[in-house]
Amino acid sequence: MTTVNLRPGESQDQLLRRFRKKVAKSGVLSTVRRKRWFISKSELRRIQKKKAKSRKPSH
């Protein structure tokens, strides 16, 4: 769990900016987005193969 404490003389905007930065750095949101729906291992492999194929340049 990410927590931030209000520093003396710090505005709410600065606190919120620092909190968002910490959350982004910890990777919590990306994990939540990835685990939002269950994807079976075979489906995950199929998706990864498809992505790899599209990344590979065809000559």
Task: Kindly list the characteristics that best describe this protein.
59 residues
Characterize the structure shown.
This protein is mainly alpha-helical and 59 residues long. It has one domain (12-55). The chain has helices spanning 12-26, 28-34, 41-55.
Please outline the helices and strands.
Layout: H1 12-26, H2 28-34, H3 41-55
Biggest β-sheet description: none
Helix content: 55-70%
Give me the count of strands: 0
Q: Which structural class should the secondary elements be placed in?
A: mainly alpha
> What integer value in Å does the Rg equal?
19 Å
Q: What general outline do the C-alpha atoms trace?
A: elongated
Order of helices and strands: HHH
- The fraction of residues assigned to DSSP E strands is under 5%
Mean pLDDT: 91
Number of domains: 1
